[in-house]
Amino acid sequence: MQFDDPGSLFDVCTQRLGERAGRQFAALARRGFRLIRAPERAQATGQCRLGGPALLEPETLWPEQNGVPLSLHAVLDTDALATWLGNELPVRPGLLNFFYLDPDLPYEEYRKLDLSESGVCRVIPADPAQAVMVTAPQPARSYAVMPVHAAEVTMLPDCWDVEDDDVEFDRGQHWGAASLILSEMGDLDGNTAGSHCAFGWPDTSYTLKVSSRDSDGAAVHLLQLAEDTELGWGWGDAGTLYFTIPAKAFAAGDFSKVVGQVLCC
Questions:
Q1: Whole-model pTM?
Q2: Fold exhibited by the domain 30-155+191-263
Q3: Whether 54 contacts 134, CB under 8 Å
Q4: pLDDT one-digit tens code per residue, 108-147
């Protein structure tokens, strides 16, 4: 669920869930962005874009998995996003390059790879003052560049990313916190699983969690990429690609711990 106005988010939560549970649910809100195609390059948010060449520091190697190069899908300019994210961006990594292994390219090397391996996705930071454009090596796919505007929103978690301890609920009436959110907030779920988003909370539209939890809390959602016929990518039937990182690794700026996950019908 996404809100342009954080105040309206709080009001809706308390009106729908009651004062106590509403406050608890509203406290889970995170700041994020809808990534919208910028009609003109000047309307893009910093250097944020989908597709195009990577923006890497000199001498940075293009990421591979078992000798097969990954494809560049997006670049986020965290300097341009920092003002809205505030404390939710504990480090300023500059540019973040998002790579993923294209599963459908007709090469024998690709068919031999296991898409469940951690190396099929990579996020590589770069100093914008040093970064240079690097074109994808063959046989990785090179997508057309699409500058994007990052529209500021405040996001509530999908019901499947809410734990039973997050909000109080009547255990005689609901089987879990997800049941409460579904019954009281479900009609407000805009279902952004078909759109591109950054930070905030992911939207799965399926009964699966994206933001796993550990002792440091829920994983940080970095990027959500939907099927895009204009760019020419997709991941199965109505598939969406998610990049998340453990909260502790994010705070330390360790993007080697990023996890890529595809969910589809």
A1: 0.88
A2: Hypothetical protein YwqG fold (2.30.320)
A3: yes
A4: 555 555 555 667 899 999 999 999 999 998 888 889 999 9
